[in-house]
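Input/output pair, single chain:
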Amino acid sequence: MSSSGFQGGFGSSGGFSDIFEDIFSDFFGGAARSHERPQRGSDLRYELEVSFEEAAFGVEKPVELEREETCSNCKGEGARPGTSRRPCAVCHGAGQVLASSGFFSISRTCHKCHGRGSFVDHPCGSCAGTGRTLVERKIQVKVPAGADNGLRLRISGEGEAGLRGGPRGDFYVDVRVRPHELFLREGDNVLCRVPISFVQAALGAEIEVPTLAGASTLKVPPGTQNGRTFKLKGKGLASFRGHGIGDEEVHILVETPTHLTDEQKDLLKQFAESSGDKVNPISQSFVEKARQLFSGKKE
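Output:
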């Protein structure tokens, strides 16, 4: 079993109709509901962890679980092979007894067999008379491309076996996606922060950008500012609902150099002197707004 963990069922449902059936049965002596009727098996739930890439492209993974299945030795009867269940002598196998009170006939659960309708004198050695045994199974789970955290997959009929020939429950898989070191998800789009040097930002460059499908070339124009975003069409995630493919948004991070040598410092000083310490349009706009703020003036 994986570290994600397996959890037991949601439980089989009795339901609102059963309550009404009991009430009418008790007060009006109608067709008594036998407790020996087939009962649906419990649903099971499992939390499956997948990588960011597996969620993006889809993956099929084996899941190991333990579940109650119909005993193969007694075929769910609970009695040892070669023997059979003995009908209750009080209710004659109905699971209910009828009591008359004046004008009313009241049907109640048999006190002898507690509604079972029969007894097992010689229990099955494999299931101890329960009709079910705990079995380990491996189930292949298909996670669709574009799966996200919180996605719940339903695999019909892979829950626990029912009682007395009842149908199986279902198997629910809750998908959990591990975070990625480079990518963040925003809907069907992928966000990636890519650092470049201040020289590349100033002069422009062609850089390699990571995508889910591999490296892709991005042209960074001269004068690119920190925080600028570029869009790579169709490099995002497929929508598992079939609504196309998202994009990748590349956020540029301009790195300021550290640990400069004396020669590099001199070159930067020469650059500053040759440019006259001129500010670019973005800086100019910021300076003007700051002056207005401190002087209390607004345009």
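The longest helix spans residues 281-295. The domain at 183-295 is CATH 2.60.260.20 (HSP40/DNAj peptide-binding domain).
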